[in-house]
Amino acid sequence: MLSLDAFRGLTVAAMIMVNNAGDWSHIYAPLGHAEWNGWTPTDLIFPFFLFIVGVSITFALGGIKQKGDTGDAARKIVRRGLTLFALGLFLNFFPKFDPTNVRILGVLQRIGIVYIVCSFVFLRTDVRGQRLLAGALLLGYYLLMTVVPVPGVGYPNLEPTTNLSAWLDNLVLTPAHVYKSTKVWDPEGILSTLPAIATGLLGVLTGTWLRGNRPVAEKIAWLFSAGVLIAIAGLFADALFPINKKIWTSSFVLLTGGLAMLGLATCYWLIDVVGPERPLYRRLSLPFVAYGVNAITVFFMSGLIPRIMNLVKVPGPDGGEVGLIEYLYRSFIAPFFSSPYNASLAGALTFVVIWGVILWIMYRRNIIVKV
Fold this sequence. Notes:
Radius of gyration: 21 Å
Largest sheet: 2 strands, antiparallel
Protein name: DUF1624 domain-containing protein
Keywords: Membrane, Transmembrane, Transmembrane helix
Mean pLDDT: 94
Order of helices and strands: HHHHHHHHHHHEEHH
Helix content: 55-70%
Structural class: mainly alpha
Oligomer: single chain
Strand order of the largest sheet: 1-2
Transmembrane segments: 44-65, 77-95, 107-125, 132-150, 189-210, 222-241, 247-271, 283-305, 341-363
Pfam families: HGSNAT_cat
Number of domains: 2
Domain Heparan-alpha-glucosaminide N-acetyltransferase catalytic: 3-212
């Protein structure tokens, strides 16, 4: 499925764009996360990627599941998941490497955990079991967050620092090892990983459906229908359990899972079904395919290289010393825009284009870095 690589690449390119604003004090609202309840386009990116992880699992492990010999696969699954976790932990350590004050969890860590759990669930259960587990995770998380009294608070609530998920992060991780911007809880925290696994399982179920023997038109029609219904269910569930990316609410899982199905179905139709007859669609998708086949590599390096560059201090345009990234932005991008918001967006897009050129060269030379 070329469309799966393209959809993954589009998601990662968007992730890199929103993670690398030219000026964080001037970003357009859709390119930032919702402050608490609600959602923006940026809030869709990470759940889309976890959904794609689930879809990819069915293609990578489908043959192994049919053969029934999962011993060697289990070792590879654990090794890959732990490697992803270690890469994320390295990014958090760099450049200070201070174990007393480092964030333990993060984006790559959550991807690693979701990958391991969803892979084993896929290998050991059938579609019915996967549906039941996804439903149980979403219902169970809803009950935990809305019914269980929070120790030290005395009542269940969904406020940023006093909800059950925040309490558990603060208890287990302690303030020294959570996201620095929040100080007492982590947006990729312990308890909210449960519904994130459900996001991955929605991808697993979608991948199983796409790998089936039904006619292509039937696959796409049902996938579009399911996507619409699940997204609408998420919007209705918002009244009981508000859509919230930071604590990954069950309504957020339904909304983003449904929209991810619609996105993948659209890519599948345009690239894999119509694409052979209209080569332009495939040609237009190739830059995103280049992103998609090296998705983890570009995400890791796009996080590491700016940190290295900012260790290099140079005289700033207005005097004083600034990091190299800020110097380049303020010297070669910001002066060409009257609006600081447009300049900030241009800085982010420049970052995406530079990586796009690098990844295109790698793709043309068939250089794919596997984790």
